[in-house]
Structure to design on (66 residues):
């Protein structure tokens, strides 16, 4: 699966993220900074960098396409 549907625990918002943005335990997700082009980053399955923040998440499901 390339994508995950996650709930960000603190803000209680739901987003689609690339699976490689999740930590190995799948309890945190890296998120790009500021006004990044989220759609392009998802399409490219961009690799998170040290500039990306990490947030506690709950994985709701996974999918091969978004």
């Amino acid at each position: 699966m390339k994508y995950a549907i996650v709930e960000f625990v603190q803000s209680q918002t739901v987003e689609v993220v690339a699976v490689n943005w999740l930590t190995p335990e799948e309890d945190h997700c890296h998120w790009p900074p500021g006004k990044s082009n989220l759609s392009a980053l998802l399409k490219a399955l961009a690799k998170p960098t040290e500039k990306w923040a990490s947030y506690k998440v709950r994985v709701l499901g996974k999918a091969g396409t978004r």
In short: The two ends are 10 Å apart (CA to CA). The chain has one domain: 3-63. The first strand starts at residue 3 and ends at 8.
